[in-house]
Amino acid sequence: MPLMAMALMVFSGCGTNLNEGLFQAASASGRSLLDIFLTDLQNSVADALDSANTPSGEDQNGGEMTPPENTSGDQTPIDELTGDPALGEEIFMANNCSACHCDDAMGGCALNAPNLVEVSVDIVDDHVRGDAEHPGGKFNFSNQDVVDLQSYLASLGGS
Questions:
Q1: With a threshold of 0.85, does the pTM exceed it?
Q2: CA distance linking residue 25 with residue 8, whole number of Å
Q3: Does 65 or 109 have the greater pLDDT score?
């Protein structure tokens, strides 16, 4: 769900002036409404381009395609993988996690986002891919992506 639509839903029924609520949310994250809108637009365009480039399930000759080999680490259980904090930081930044959790992942920049520093890999996985609530939506992360992200978050705490 686009960020602006989520913001409208959050503020629409609580008796808060919508314009004031949006201004406060943007101010708290240190970003202007234009920054948030442009980030949301950029993500929407990228998603549309990704889906346009996704194979339809057939090759050019009309035959069934063989699925690509899984090289993302999904076949290896999370507890057997080693995370790379540098790759995790790239995932954190590329998916705009800082909009809610702040640049330092300490949380509270928007939507009462929690502190993520040193959170366990199971909690990260459950919130970004599993059944736990995550207002930012779910992500199509591989097991390796989740471990890299958690490794980055752990590195922020210095332990």
A1: no
A2: 11
A3: 109
Give 82-156's CATH code, choosing from 1.10.10.60, 1.10.760.10, 3.10.105.10, 3.40.50.2300: 1.10.760.10
Please report the DSSP string for the chain in residue order. Answer: --HHHHHHHHHHTTT--HHHHHHHHHHHTT--HHHHHHHHHHHHHHHHHHHHTS--SB-TTSSBPPPPP--SSTTS-GGG----HHHHHHHHHHTTTHHHH-TTS---SSTTPPP-TT--HHHHHHHHTSSS--TT------HHHHHHHHHHHHHHTT-
pLDDT over 50 at 61, yes or no: no
Mean pLDDT over 100-111 rounds to: 90
| d(C-alpha 60, C-alpha 65), whole Å | 9
CA dist., res. 83 & res. 100, Å (int): 23
